[in-house]
Amino acid sequence: MVCVFATLLYVAVACGSTKPETQEIEVRIQLSSVGVIVMDPDLIEAKQDDTLVLSIVSEKEGMMHIHGYDLGIMVSPENAAVFEFDAATTGRFEVMFHAVGSNDSSHSHDAHGHASHKGSSDEADNHTSHETSSSGEGQSIDQFLGYLQVMPR
Ligand SMILES: [Cu+2]
Q1: Cα 98 to ligand 1 centre (Å)
Q2: What proportions of the chain, in percent to the nearest 5, are helix, strand and coil?
Q3: pLDDT (tens digit per residue) in 108-143
Q4: Fold of 20-102+131-153
C-alpha cells in the first residue's frame, strides 16, 4: 500500500513538471550571402500545448507562413513582429517565407482608402479580396525556411 502511494506521488510530480510552458523564441529571417532567405533557428521546437511567443526580426518584408497550422505572420525590417500561438497539434510543419513584391504597396493602400470612401462597402470588399489573392504575381518568392516541430507531451 505504501508502495502504491509512492508511485502515485511520483506520477503526480512528473506530470506537474511537464505542464505546458510559454516559450519565448527569437527568430531571425536573414538574406544569406548567396541571396537565399534563411531562418535562425531553422528548427523551432515545442511540446504539445506550449504557448509559443515568437519575436521575429526580418531583413526582408513578407509573410512567414507555418504550414499545417496555416498561420501567416507579416514581417518587415522596420518592425519586429511578435507572434503568439498555442502549439496544440503535434507534428513537423514546414515554415515558409512568402516575400512580397517590390511594388509600392503603401500607395495602393491609400488608393483603397479613397475607393472605399466613395463606393459601396460591397464593392470595396470585392476589391480587397482580389488584391489579396493576386499576391502570387511576378515578384513574389516562396522560400523554405525550416520546421516547426511539436512533440507529444
Ligand atoms: Cu505558405
Answers
A1: 7
A2: 30, 40, 30
A3: 344 343 443 444 444 444 444 444 444 444 455 789
A4: Immunoglobulin-like (2.60.40)
